[in-house]
Hints:
Elements: E1 2-6, H1 16-30, E2 34-41, E3 53-63, E4 69-75, H2 78-88, E5 92-96, H3 103-108, E6 114-119, H4 127-144, E7 149-152, H5 155-162, E8 169-171, E9 191-195, H6 204-217, E10 222-226, H7 232-241, E11 247-251, H8 255-264, E12 267-270, H9 280-287, E13 292-295, H10 298-303, E14 312-313, H11 318-330, H12 332-345, H13 351-366
Parallel strand pairs: 1-2, 1-5, 2-3, 5-6, 6-7, 7-8, 9-10, 9-12, 10-11, 12-13, 13-14
Antiparallel strand pairs: 3-4
Helix pairs in contact: 1-13, 6-11
Amino acid sequence: MKIGLVCPYNIFRGGGVQECVLALQKELAHRGHDAYIIAPRPREYPDKIPQHILLIGGAADFKSPFHTTAQMSVSVNTDALEATLDARNFDILHFHEPWVPILSRQILSRSKAKNIATFHAKLPDTIMSRTIERVITPYTRSILKYLDEFTAVSDAGAEYIRSLTTHEVQIVPNGVDLQNYALTQHDGKPHVLYIGRLEKRKGVKYLLSAFAELQKRLPNVQLTLAGDGPDKEKLMELANNLRLQHVTFMGYVTDKQKHELLRKATVFCSPALYGESFGIVLLEAMATGLPLVAGANAGYSSVMKEKGQLSLVNPKHTDEFARKLQLLLTDTDIRNLWCSWAKDYVQQFSYPHIVDQYEAIYKSVLA
Length: 367
């Protein structure tokens, strides 16, 4: 099959959607499909662009009302777009977050392929998000007529689109490349690791507060914060005001550095408050054999089932948060039980299993 994977974000900048699209392309190509990624051209990009990445239009930074940032499509050269579609003659165009302006809409209106949609995002249940929904809904409705099949990464991710259509929305979860993650080899020192954006919805300030309580019980515990974002300076100031010891702000890290950090940590922590529809980073921790503590938002709760529920916490409840970190840092029996469960549970999210599901959808819609 000739397959185009459409990503509205800067494909060269880390993010859950980008990681998913890159992994799908790799596995589809491995299976012999002509698989390409179609994405906007960012202002800064590598000198050598892989042949399977097709850049169309431009991208710019965008800050949402939910205090999150992304670099997304802002312009499209329609002549170049039409030339690309004619030259590639795709059988399947698979749109990730098709409601994000403007690349997907421009491609959909010109597509001669079968069009598959995957919805990733979960809007928080706030007055602001309901206002945003009213603004984006007319635009989203305008693309529905072009779509042949609907998928979402979780029920949380499907919630918005299910409110707009009676069409079945199939759940195909995000995945993880298990072969990329070597098992953890921490040195026995208590070490908490966070990897992600430093922005409000990620709840990092609550992690710092819980860490202040944790240090009263475990004076030698370390905390590493890997990632960048608009709240970095405020969080560094908060850590200073709380007089925290052994806290390291690493800034942006490469994939290689991320894997090394996961291997050496004792507990992974992602205290996101909202806006998470799934949680690829949780799968990455599990793939490394690393116990985790996670915010009990809708997306993370859809992943952390069975014994994984032990990991969920309300980040705003500081004492409970600190106790859960301490439990997974120090209780060997609980750690071993959790890790044994996670080793088996994470297998279902390997990308070969995920691509099996998408391939079945592709073949069904073509038939």
